[in-house]
Design brief:
By secondary structure, the chain is an alpha/beta fold. The protein contains ten helices and 13 strands. The longest helix has 22 residues, at 218-239. The structure holds coenzyme A (COA). Residues 32, 36-37, 40-41, 116, 155-156, 159, 216, 218-219, 221-222, 225, 255-256, 259, 283, 313-314 line the site of coenzyme A.
Length: 326
């Protein structure tokens, strides 16, 4: 028997304000077009946090939804990990804010900085801590407010991002140690800091003393994306003795429809087997995978027993994959 981190609940939260490409352009005086944005990225809409909503508010709402899905009282949560690059403040951790807001138990609470790969990193750390006996019920949350860190004079990046949060509750269970087990089967994490400058927030508390804005060399990032994502998914499948044919659902990080479709093709998946939210959410960084999980679980697409492959790449560079059976 082995410990398995079961996905006991999923939840998401999107701020009520939803802007179309044309509405975004008008609001910020951008020289762009709905056709350019849709053609290059597949994005039609994004949600925007209200002025009084911080990352921890979005995260707490997603956490409450995940707990309701699992039927677990918040007091029984003994660990919270928030993946975010738009934390409420340098400290306390956004996770500690969430702990107070939802009334979770006095277990650990900390943030992870791995940009768009943050949720996969969070799953990996949570599972390792559960195996070590530190917690039985861990919330792993991705929460971002990127509309606060994009440069609204840079039309090449500001149109790509949106705000939101997604959460999963991991609960300790048992498995036989085979790829038929329910729960997280594996996580594979990578980073290559030599490419740190192609996707970064310029500045921060420890360098410039302020909060900088997001900068991205889009073509460079694109060049790394498909090859690294395909390699890290194949690495994960091989580690579990699985093949492309075993995948029920691909739940990719939602940055760009072109990258998502290229990944679906590489894995020989029918388009209906790839969960897509980028058209309505844009890129919500660490929140995009748990938001997509919550949507596909909530509408009944992902069923108990289904094998789900998750993958992401982001600033760092960081990239990674996770395989879970629901
Ligand atoms: N509206 C209209 N035109 C725009 C525009 C916008 N919002 N943004 C850029 N352009 C223009 C540029 O000014 C440029 O014009 P020029 O040829 O006259 O100089 C032209 O479009 C091409 O710009 P470029 O930046 O080369 O576009 P691209 O084809 O590389 O597409 C991205 C840009 C961002 C969509 C694309 O590079 C991409 O998706 N990269 C990956 C990004 C990603 O996934 N990041 C997140 C990973 S976590």
């Amino acid at each position: 028997m082995v410990m398995r981190a079961l996905i006991a609940g999923c939840g998401g939260y999107l701020p009520p304000l939803r802007l179309s490409n044309d509405e975004l352009a008008a609001r910020h005086g951008l020289e762009t077009s709905d056709a350019w944005i849709q053609d290059r990225t597949g994005i039609k809409f994004r949600h925007v946090a209200a002025p009084d909503e911080a990352a921890s508010d979005l995260a707490a709402a997603a956490a409450r939804a995940a707990l309701a899905d699992a039927g677990l009282p918040a007091a029984q949560v003994d660990g919270i990990i928030v993946a975010t690059t738009t934390p409420d403040s340098g400290f306390p951790a956004t996770a500690a804010r969430v702990q107070a807001k939802i009334g979770a138990g006095p277990g650990f609470a900390f943030d992870i900085t791995a940009a768009c790969t943050g949720f996969i990193y969070g799953l990996s750390v949570a599972e390792a801590m559960m195996r070590a006996g530190h917690a039985r019920h861990v919330l792993v949350i991705g929460a971002e407010v990127y509309t606060r860190i994009v440069d609204w004079t840079d039309r090449g990046t500001c149109v790509l991002f949106g705000d939101g949060a997604g959460a999963v509750l991991l609960s300790a269970g048992e498995g036989a140690g085979s790829n038929k087990d329910r729960g997280l089967l594996s996580t594979h994490l990578h980073a290559d800091g030599r490419h740190g400058d192609i996707l970064a927030i310029e500045g921060g508390a420890g360098s410039t003393g302020g909060t900088g804005l997001l900068r991205m060399a889009g073509k460079e990032v694109f060049r790394h994306a498909v090859s690294k994502l395909a390699a890290v998914v194949d690495e994960a499948l091989a580690a579990n003795g699985l093949t492309h044919a075993d995948i029920d659902w691909l739940v990719p990080h939602q940055a760009n429809l072109r990258i998502i479709e290229a990944m679906g093709k590489k894995l020989n998946l029918q388009p209906g087997r790839v969960v897509v939210t980028v058209d309505r959410h844009a890129n919500t960084s660490a929140a995009s995978i748990p938001l997509a999980l919550a949507e596909a679980r909530g509408d009944g697409r992902i069923k108990n027993g289904d094998l789900v492959v998750m993958e992401a790449i982001g600033g760092g560079l960081t990239w990674g994959s996770a395989i879970a059976r629901f």
